[in-house]
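Recap for those who missed Tuesday's class. We walked through two folding examples back to back. For each one, the amino acid string is listed first and its predicted structure tokens come directly after. Nothing is annotated here on purpose, so try labeling regions yourself before you check the end of the notes.
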Amino acid sequence: MKLNNIEHVFFDLDHTLWDFDRNSALAFKEVFEKQKIELDIEKFLEVYIPINFKYWELYRNDSVTKEALRYGRLKESFDTLKFETQDTTINLIADDYIEYLPNNNHLLEGSIEILDKLKQDYKLHIITNGFEEVQHKKMRNSSILDYFETVTTSEEAGVKKPHPLIFEKAIAKSGANKSNSVMIGDNLEADIIGAHQFGLHVIYLDYNGQSVQNQYPQIQKLKELLNYL
């Protein structure tokens, strides 16, 4: 079912266009080699990914700081694996990871194709909870920055999705209206429910195929956006 009168398309970045899981794994591989961390990367990621998800939820709710997120997700992962390391090493790993993460630039399947297609008819934008200094590097290094008219980060807005003020900031910055805008993202609470409650059209990207049941338009592949746009 096509959405009518859409002129502005707002994307989340991580897990929506930018292949966070793949790029993150590559960054950790580099960091562990540099810091001589003798852990199986697959076993580490199996523990780290849900812990990282938990810390991002805490960060979205202002329950932890950016610094506490960067340290805590690593410390808790190492503790769970009973891998002993010093706080100084954890902080070095945290810093290296942020430095190396944007150097990997894999995108989710169909990202460039769908951006090429949508750019012909719509104004494209990014709304992201990611860190200001990292997100622009990710987009530049993966050659997608020029597709977007505006990029709104949570650090710039002073609040994180799903807070309505970040959507308000993005709408004002873009010159869009709620009625002619759609938000596309992978996080049901932050991207979809938050944007919908603000008054935007929404499309939920179930990028890892979990088939989450919800009331919103839902896709599993980016190319399916053409069913709506």
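Example two. Treat it independently of the first, because the proteins are unrelated.
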Amino acid sequence: MTEPLRIAMWSGPRNISTAMMRAWENRADCAVSDEPLYAHYLAYTGLDHPARDEVIAAGETDWRRAVDALLGQSPERKPVWYQKHMTHHLLPHIEHGWIARLRNVLLIRDPYEVVASYVKSRATVAADDIGLPQQAVLYDELCAAGEAPPVVDAGDFLRAPEAHLRALCDWLGIAFSERMLRWPQGPRSSDGMWAPHWYASVRKSTGFAAPMARENVLSGEAAAVAEACRPHYERLRALRLRV
């Protein structure tokens, strides 16, 4: 049985990760999985997120079983399997050895923009909530395992989606598909149970939106978190894919 090409896109929240998932799912040869470690994350941490009970009931709460599934056969036996991951779901007790068996990509975004978006829907924020510290650790681990992952900056990507997607497909050894640039509006059966709470904009979209200048003003805890994450962001941004 031929092994699928398993692509793991490691992002933080409030990024373009769901639009990226839409792009890959619109390929005829690709299946997607939406945050497969989220149920374990919620069950283990006890955090109160929108649709928490539904996410836990619908997902796999044992991270080991979730990982076993991610290393198994792809949905519908598609040859390409895109896995959308959040790095903050990699809780400290989760072993990381399995990750090197995937083809990994890091998706980063300026922490000031991430935090400004995050605090619109959450009362508090901490550095680990937005995933950048975990992305920096994961980058080093993957380099040590033998393959430096491409780093995609969301701002750069939105200025040149096709060029970035072509570069990623080339790195993965697969053909680029024009279908990755445009997709039909609406929900997907592959969307997580949390989609009604978070995916309204993506469900209305038909492609990647052009980047918009935002004047975000942060203060207090939010500003401190953004600044604490900035060194991780700047380090990874210096390593970003340039097209």
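Answers for example two:
The CA atoms of residues 117 and 223 lie 12 Å apart.
The two ends are 35 Å apart (CA to CA).
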